[in-house]
Amino acid sequence: LRARAQELRRRRDELRAHGELQQRTLLENEEVATSGDPGAAQPSDRAVLEWKMRNIQDLLQIFYLTGLSGKRTKHGVCFCISTAYEGTYLDSFHVDLATQPQLRVRRHSVPVFIPLEQLATKHLQTDVKRFLSALADHLNAYVGRRYQADQLQERFSGHLEGALQRNSLCNVLAFKYNTVGQGETFPF
């Protein structure tokens, strides 16, 4: 899984670099088209603004492919973190960030046992990307554990005796299963 994650990160970085190169090429082509002389004109404010908007839209598309998407809101930005386990999309969580007077979490749908406030205190003012990455890691871990517990209960219910017990974080499971020893079936 680590090798696959590294490969996907490498591919993401390649796509990002390729996108930035295309953006620069487009901007340079617009400059040449508007001035007729490639070295004489500076890009217009409108061209720079359009380039920045396309760049932001491309970044949002990249984030969407990695499970993160966002959109501007009246108060700031709302991010959606989509979680998955082994290629199966499971849940989405939202974090609404207010940008004024400083960056802060305004509203969210993150479960209370995920250390959102600690992550915000540690990363939000200095590195939003790291904040979102750490939060996505926590959410994916939780949703993955919950999914595995559900699959255990669903697939092996015939071998389980009684109900599967778990805590809200799904990091502690308690269950009994039947095993065969010396020709007899007994709970373990």
Automatic annotation (TrEMBL):
GO cellular component: Mis6-Sim4 complex; nucleus
InterPro entries linked to this entry: CENP-O
Pfam families: CENP-O (PF09496)
Subcellular location: Chromosome, Centromere; Nucleus
Keyword list, A-Z: Centromere, Chromosome, Nucleus
Protein family membership: Belongs to the CENP-O/MCM21 family.
Protein name: Centromere protein O
Organism, as annotated: Crypturellus undulatus
